[in-house]
Amino acid sequence: MPWIRLSLLVAVLVSGLSCAGSGVPKDFKVVFGEGGGVTGQWRGHTIAADGQVETWAGASAEVNPKPAGKLSDKSRSAIWDELEKSGYFEIERNEPGNMTRFIRVTANEETHEVTWPAGGSDDTLEGLLAFCREQVKNQ
Amino acid sequence: MTTRTPIRTTPIPAVLVPGLCLLMAASAEAIDTSHFPIPLPEVKSSETAARPAKQMAVPDDAGRPGFAAKTANRFAGSVGRTQPASEQLIVGVERRLEAIRQAKLLGLDRNPAARHLGSTDAVFGFERLESSNPDLQIRWHEDTGVPRFISGTNLLPMTATPFAPEDAAAAFLRDQKALLRIDDPSAEFEQTEKIESEDGFQAVRLQQVHEGIPVWARDVVVRLDRSGRVSGFSGTHLPSASFPDATPAVSEGAAAQTARESMSDRYGTAAVSETPELMYFLPIAGNPEAESTQKEPRLAWRVRTRGNAHQVDDVFVDAMTGAILHSSTRVCMTGPATGSGRDLAGVTRSLELWESNGTNFMVNTTKDMFDLNGSQMPDNPKGGILIANANHAENTQELFHVTSNNLNSWTGSENAVSSSFYAGQVYDYFKQRHSRTSIDGNGGAMILVVNFGTNFANAFWSAPIMHFGNGDGQDFSDLAGSLDVTAHEMSHGVTEHTANLVYEFQSGALNEHFSDAFGVATDFFANGNGANWLLGEEVTTPNIAGDCLRNMIDPGASNVAFGGQPRHMNEYRNLTIQQDNGGVHINSGIPNRAFYFATVDQGLGIEATEKIWYRALTQYLNRSSQFVDFRLATIQAAVDLYGAAAGNSVAAAMDAVGITDGEPTDPGGDLPDNTGADYLSFIDASTGNVIRVDLPNGSSFEQITGVSIAASGRPSFADDGSIFAWVAADQNIYVSASNGSGTQQLSDTGDWNSVAINAEGTILAATTVYADGMIYLFDLGTGNGQAVELQSQNSSDGDIPSNIVAADVMEFAAGGDYLIYDTLNRSEFGGTELEFWDINLLRLTDGTFFRVFPSLPAGESVGNPTLGQNHDNLMAFDYVDTEPNVYVLAVDFETGDVGQLTNNFDSLGRPTFAGDDGAVYYQYDDGSSQRQIWYVELEAGGLNGDPKTDTAVLNGALNPVFFTIGTRPTPILLSALEGDWFGDQVVLEWEVPDVASHVGFEVERVIESGSPELRTPDPISSRDGQDGRFQFVDEAPVAASRAEYRIIGVKSDGHTEELGRLELTPGRSGSIGESLALLPAYPNPFAGSVQLRFTVPSDTGLPTSVTIHDVQGRVVARPVAAEQLASGVHQVEWDGRTEDGRPASAGVFFVRLSQGGMEQTQRVTLLR
């Protein structure tokens, strides 16, 4: 009997040790940035599944990555919540412009990417981008 | 006309075998007709309209540079002034009047109107009005208690003799002086105007004075009806008791001096003044100053002061204290003004501004495109150049004017000064060099936004606005500080309004190139010998001298910040869409260098070259033009403008950068032979029904239409021959299985002319009987339709504009997204109307039109085009000369060679290729006795018909169409790829089944997980192989444990495609024949179709399948259905449709390659 109780206790403890924001997929990864314009340069960030942040800048997206700290679970969760709340995953938009902005999310082994032209009036996407940037900036 | 005698002596019956004339209900292959009959769709709208300019708000932050709170108040105060309290005031008065009436009725002594009726006399006066005017309306000034408005039918009791209007007005004022609170109206009102309107009503205007001194802005109007009765009063006068002593303590000279100094301070200019005039002054209602300061009228000197033509103020100087009470703008001060300011380089620039009531806005309205009547200044200047401030926001949802209250002081707005100045120069460049009015060519406003974002190190165009960031101080300084950057961004707008080059891959690189080219050209225009061939050097890496964004002379030069660009096509970077949209900023270096070569090396000079380039962009290029189209366009433009020598110069410039000659279109190369059963369909000349006969035996004749076909209703077969479409004699569209079963009527409007069905049987093209110049495209899977308006082509003999009347014969290319068609055109030449037929090509992926034959001599026509069965580069067609005599000709798009198949005398041939395109069937129809189908074989290695084979094969038959029932095998790209890595060498060998499919090959290498390196600076020519086999020896990578080699095929138009890849390790050999493998799908994600590449190992005898599965594992498509495939690299396309032809929903799918028990899976994403 004690053996059973101990097992149960362990099970409870293990479940209690699950990460805060357990709704966030384990493989949740975000890449966001912008590029093009007259310079042709691209700048942005990558937030890996473990929260590690990279900043990148170069002739195309995600080149020359450099470590830029680590995002807390709370911030990762906040980004995930914001993406869900905004309806990001339902947005189907692949519209590069002279200056292109994008957000690419990998979660549950699926990747969803949205690109749109800078200077537009898409409050949702602009707001999401600003939110992601803010989370990275405030880490 | 020559009588043609058939060789066969036994007539071939062209009638149906009995029993097959009835339609059969069962269908061998059903077609989804649930959307039929298909209504004529509306033409889809074209590009969306540009967003309206943002509303501008003058900021009220006094801390903003060069901006004063006072100015803001003035601006804010002049907009939309209303009196929200007036409603309540009216209600309050009515209640009071009602109370008075009630009081009178009740005989009350206390009169509630005493609040406004300041005396008993006023009450009596009011009672007189009320008793004589049942409809009396009276409103009051709350602050002074005097009436502001009185209306009735008889406000002044009439005498026997009518008063003259001015006398009646004076009498009214006297009669109601108590109500008006005026002691002596005769002395306190001076008539200034008498107005008589056409309808007989009159009015008298009177200025208020006190002790002979005018009261500023206080006057009254008395109105009279047609009978001369006083019917109304309105006024803003002040009660007599309001006024102070009339003796000034300040001299008029001192007042004038004060006024002039005030004006100078405000406008920064010297002022002059007129003789001061003594007045009583009280600020008018609604002026915030009035509410906070002055409550009573004060004696003042009014000094009319003048700065310049736009600056005339009435300055009121307190006659007792000398303080300035008020300045009132005398002149409606709105209009253009010239000022100056320092730009980002510290240079003082002349500025063209817009001034409004003391505020100077950075809006240039001096260009001839400005339209004041169409403008709402200063926010929406039609044809103006407007500089706005994003105030570091990352969007333009709220923009602010750049303003100053001093024409010549713009401290803190240096970037705006730069923008304004440079924008004017760019406008002048396009106007003077290319006669182009503004970005859109129609005088549309040019809007530039500075201070976009924070540390935003870029500038970009997003219609209709150009955006400039301040830079980050390291990579870039404020990007408004560069003329060629400004011109570059504006040129994107020009491109958008002309060729509108798609911003991807080569067309995108051309888009970038034209912006660079006009950027540099503007620099030369503005600065002459002071210009250079660098882009953005003023703002790039401010801490590093000599750097630039791009270098037109040497795109790969070391002073190109952030990495150089390719200089030549052999350095062309084959990038993915995720990599700079396919390298639009990277590969633009190649045409950039061509521009320089044309200008300098070839000696055309900048002005000629820019004109050639501008013409090419605006009149020749299309949305998805490639580098080869760019070459053709610029050469032709040069010839058109300056002659053949100029064309040769441009050609040499293109050659120098490796943009070589090639076909403007590449409808497709060789296709694998369809080895199914061959048939020939034709129209029974006596019945009009369509018959099919098996080939080569000709033993079985079957009628496959139950109704007769329209004269123009040539049947069109899908590539696998399973179904066909036609237009019947009732002018409706039908589809049927190719054996005639399952006929379905697709339309019931009875106004269709011709149809064509694409290779997959999923798209139908149709024309109507109307002269509408349209082709209608229908998706047979969804029922959606689209109307395509055909573009006009130049007519015969040069640039005579023509109108397209209608299209007729159409055919889809089997191997690509092209539709070839002929059109009837009409033009006028020398007062004579000409009609002629022409052949054109429509690229369905982007709607680009191509002329197949650029120019036709007057009186000649070409038509009835048909493409090869296995070679989309072959076309047969009818050519009619001026006699007229008809020849059936053939052309090879890849070589441009034309051959004569046969002389068809006076009959159109309506040819169709047969078999492996080594022969052609055609008709001969003399309109009466001779209606035959003839057959001719092509001479070996050429395009001419062999006369010995030119034979009649069918009598009483017309309009032949060859088709095959069967499928083509999956194409193979590489039949072998092997490599050896031993010692310090890697040896690669590969074999291609069709050498002609590529002009060359490149080899890329990826070491470990690094970036691809191009190992062949010069592509390996396809002529350097032996029997289709090629070899490349590479220096082995040092200290690497593995390397992947990729073979890239280079097409004739410059396109590249990966043919296969092989991973090697040191000391090992490798071969693609060793494994079943999926190569990366491309593009991925995809929107239309995706190329699936895979390797099949050495012959196993096992069938290979490629299936597409959804996330639930269900099979949605089978691009390869259990086929026996040879070893090597194969490619197949999935068009994003399910097995039943419907478009699959957007989402993730899995590509599964399987052979025997082995499988490989790859994820692809379909976007919609």
TrEMBL record, chain A:
Assigned keywords, A-Z: Signal
Entry superkingdom: Bacteria
UniProt signal peptide: 1-20
Protein name: Uncharacterized protein
